[in-house]
Amino acid sequence: MDSGMILDARDEVPFEPLLLLLPEELCWMLDRNFACEMEWHSGNTLSQTVFTFLYIHQLADINPDLIPPGFPLLKDPKRPIELVTLVLRAAVFGLLKSCDFVWRELSKKRVFDMEDWQSDKCEVTLLEGVPVDIVLRKLDDACSWLRNSALPQTDKEALCDRLMLRKTLLELFKLSHLDNLDELRPLVAIAKNILRRVQARPSVQPIDGSPALYSFDPRVVRRLHTVMPIRVLELPSQETVWSKVEQLLEGWEQVGHLRSVHSLSGWEIAGSLSVWMSERKLQLPYCRSLTQGTFSDRNLVFGEYPTEWLVDHFFEESLGVSYETIRDVLEDDIERWALKEIEDHIIRVTTNYIKSFWYNPPRHRRFLMRAILDWQLLQDALSNFSSQVLVIDFESYMISFCLPRAAALWKYTAAREILLSGFHQELYSVHERPLAYWYTAHIIEQHIDCIDGMRRVIPSDSVAFIEMQFQSQFLGALQLVCAAMCMITSNALTQPRKRTALNFRRRYKWLFRPESNSELLFPVPLFSDLPEYLDMVTDDEPNENLKLAIDILQDLKQFDCRGVWATEEAKERLAEKQAMPKGALGYHSR
User: Which of 206-210, 327-331, 581-585 has the highest mean pLDDT?
Assistant: First the structure.
């Protein structure tokens, strides 16, 4: 309630929009505008960031067509009025229009308001009704004036680079808004080149008393319509800001690449890497929203395929057999309406599953918990179908055997993601970690058994078979790592068995079938077997397990990624997996 209270008149910022500026002062202001914009991208409010730049609220006052004739302006060749009325005004237009495009994308509800971003505009315009081409023209006109002005060459180049960076970003936002991503990569390359030039010639903070310092008011929220008091936000250093701009460009670059990856496996690998690779920062909400829209939007996949494409690739990438072949076998025994229900279920589950990799990590984990039941329902329905198939040849036997296991593969993967993400997000207490590692190892064991059973019957020349070879080897190493970590942390398992069982039920409630309070979706030895299991594993040296896991992953260096669905993603995944047990060894040494 105190956000609008002014304790002292000295707190009021003296601001006059038509005060003349030096080129270096304007450069600093434009750089800090990027700081405001990137902080909004990072999840802060517009009133804390973009709207603290006071020229946004004074656009009419710096309009050259509205300045009264004879208005007293100091004539100073070092501070031409056009720097304010033409250059600065164009930059403000570009900033607001960029925010407008971002706001429209984020409001599509692929990311979450108040969680990933803040939508409150405080009744301030983002130039929603101004065509983007007019803004681009203003930026071009400002650059043309600068190049023909009498300002020093270094100042002209510095200002033009910042205006062109703004223009290129705005063109990228425009492309994304129109779902026309064909020109995305060239624009990203242009923006990166301009950004390197801007970084090479950093702006200098103005001296005390400069009008540029008064152009930002972090307490501007006092004068805006907002529903809550907002604390004053300290903007990051300019080096950090440029890093975030580069992160935004890399997000666009990743979207452009993924748009050419027409494979469910490729998108799943890319999404998993974005979650687990420590050197990758979590993408900005705008990029995560754009990535989800690129995968599927308006009943189209990649903007060109109907959603039936998902059903075809679900089976082809899981079983190595086309859906047309499966449907030919099933249609003799299964009603068409039942097949249509399964197709709709697959489309819904796979679409949401792939998109969930670009949620924020806690939201991704919660989604997977809910999705486990959807995968189980799909597995049950496919099991019912397979039991009705009349087996007359090897093809019908293979389809009957593998059909429910196709859903099981995705279910096991989702369960593993949930369990391991609990470590990633530091959700487990010290008493819970041994049991979490133990249970993860058992689920991985079931996953390996499922893969080994399918490998005996699916076509050996299919891409699915090659992927299963990789998964079987990798999961074997991961199981060894989980068993080793269970041994390492087992000394923390000091709670009574009853307390451990109650904690398990509370932590893993997503594992129980809704119609049963005791039946697990992934049956494992119950708690009565846990002490015996720990006695067995603690007889071994965990380093032996870890070294064996490293040996297995070293063998994966020979794995030929050229035969899989998404070659580049598979290579990147391979490099990331080989560092996994070494981190566990480091944990053990500590």
Answer: 206-210
| Element of type H or E holding 297 | strand 296-297
In the 8-state DSSP scheme, what is residue 233?
P
Distance CA(326)–CA(310), nearest Å, equals 15
Contact between residue 161 and residue 197 where contact means Cβ atoms under 8 Å apart = yes
Quickly tell me which residue has 């979207």 as its tokens: 255
Q: Which two tokens stand for residue 161?
A: 């680079």
Judge contact between 312 and 321, C-beta under 8 A: no
By the 8 A CB rule, do 358 and 274 touch? yes
Q: Is residue 252 within 8 Å of residue 172, measured between CB atoms?
A: yes
pLDDT single digits (tens) 494-520: 777 778 778 888 888 888 877 666 677
User: Residue 296, SS3?
Assistant: strand
Name the pTM for this structure: 0.91
- Residues 527 and 504: their CA atoms lie apart, in Å, by 9
Q: Which of 281, 274, 272 is nearest to 246 (CA)?
A: 281
Kindly report, residue by residue over 3-49, the tens digit of the pLDDT.
Answer: 555 555 445 556 888 889 999 999 999 999 999 999 999 999 999 99
Query: 460-485 burial by CB neighbour count: b if 16+ within 10 A, else e?
Result: eebbbbbbbbbbebbbbbbbbbbbbb
CA distance 205 to 423: 43
